[in-house]
Amino acid sequence: MDIKERYIRGVLLVCASLSVIAVAAITYTIIAAGWPVFTEYGVFRFLFGAKWLPDADNIQLGILTMIAGTGAVTVCALVIGGPIGILSAVYLAELASKRTSTVIQAFIDLLAGIPSVIYGFWGLVVLVPAIRNYLGSTKGYSVLAGGVVLAIMILPTVVRISADALRAVPKEYRDGSYALGADRWYTIFKVILPAAAPGIITALILGFGRAIGETMAVLMVTGNAKQFPTSLLEPITTITGNIALEIGYSWGLHRQALFACGAVLMIIILLVNFLINRIIRRAAGGIYE
Amino acid sequence: MNKLKIWDFITWVCIGLVLAVLLLVIGHVVVSGIRFINLKFIVETTSNAGRSGGIRNVISATIYLTLSALLLAVPVSIAAAIYLQEYARKGRLLNILVSGIETLAGVPSIVFGLFGFNIFVTLLGWSWSLVSGAITLALMGLPILTRTIMEAIRAVPRSYRDASLALGAGQWTTIVRVVLPAAFSGIITGIILSMGRIIGETAAVFLTFGSTLNSISSIFDSGRTMPVHVYILSSESVSIDNAYATATILLVVIIALNGLAYLYQGITKKRG
Hints:
The complex is a heterodimer. By secondary structure, chain A is mainly alpha-helical. Chain A folds into 2 domains: 2-53, no CATH class; 64-283, MetI-like (MetI-like fold), CATH 1.10.3720. Helix content of chain A is 78%, strand content 1%. Chain A contains 11 helices and 2 strands; from the N terminus they run H-E-E-H-H-H-H-H-H-H-H-H-H. Chain A has a two-stranded antiparallel ribbon with strand order 1-2. Chain B is mainly alpha-helical. Chain B has one domain (37-271): MetI-like (MetI-like fold). The longest helix of chain B has 32 residues, at 2-33. Chains A and B meet through helix 1, helix 2, helix 3, helix 4 and helix 5 of A and helix 1, helix 3, helix 4, helix 5 and helix 6 of B.
């Protein structure tokens, strides 16, 4: 009997370890597949080269324009989605009745469940023409379109995690502030938001991770032009979008460079996770869980 | 006093925007798409690269891929959740296992796609196929499945386990006979929610399952799922009308799954 229990326990442990194994396998595979680019082509030329010409005789595989493109849409998404998300969380946690808050939260969870391709499609048929017609962008495919679509996509994450952090602030903090004569918004800005800061920062970093890794929705609305983002209304390419577009027909060094792009993404995501762990651990025993 | 009102107003505007966006996106797609949908669109196969005909083969490819991925991921996730919730002690090992799940949850879809493309499509020579796509998606589904199932198991009261153990049952017997049946509805809810995520996946599917418009007859066949169909029809300007119609069906399925999970949760909670 004891042997059977031990055997079962072993099998369960293997299943529970699968996620860790998968993370290690994915990281290793992708870095290994892109390795020649780092060693033979050169890390510096790869990361800071401004030209991406995989089919030219003198092959050029610089991803700086794409890094800038990804950076531009991500910043745009956080600038739009961050404040709206945090204030929505304030509404849900501080202003709304419990009932309203539950109903709205259910809607926002639905927003999280909608596939990215639907947001991309909506961006393509609604947002892109609108930007072309009303904002004077020549193509409509633009940093702005990508930023808005991404902002919508990170909202559910930002709202849910910020709202949880705000709700976790002990009631005594509010009572104390009110007892000192502070009004509601003074309490929110000076007491509750600072107390929930680790959680809110975690929410923003998670949103950042989502935005950087998002592929299809951004690919559909940013126009696939390998150039530096000089204005919000110009088209760009993101690292992720470029992988999806070119991996199918790529070969040799070109394909390895696309894996190297994946490796860069994976390293950023691992850093994001590390950062969040640090923040949560530092705040542990305090406000956030 | 006035300043207070202004901030109240700004907050309402923000939450209003969030809800408006949800309604705008769903509303626009469904209202524009519904008129292109009829029985023929669902039962006929695609013709002329998706310009005409229906999407029967696309729907069946989506169902095959989703069910295969769940078939692989669900048993593993249940086992993982049982270990983490019932067996693991607080400590270093548990921390590593949990942060592995958190990290995997944050890995972008395109990176899963690259992984699957490299290992299953190229290295193992399975090409773009149901098996390559299903394994990749199963890995992607692990974190959300494990987390939701863990929550369901956690919700089972301690006293149930104590009662079973006191009757002389072993730990495994207790889990199989007492804990899992009590957590059953929560587990089903988790599976339904994860199913919605898996159905909507695009980038990873595009890289591992491919995008050919054929009917699937073996696990080594490639196919095109609904999200990939929407992507190709719209971004390559093949047929915006059919893209609307496919997107609408996809959205309705996702909303229905979410609603189902929500209702099921509500019903079972009331029943106690």
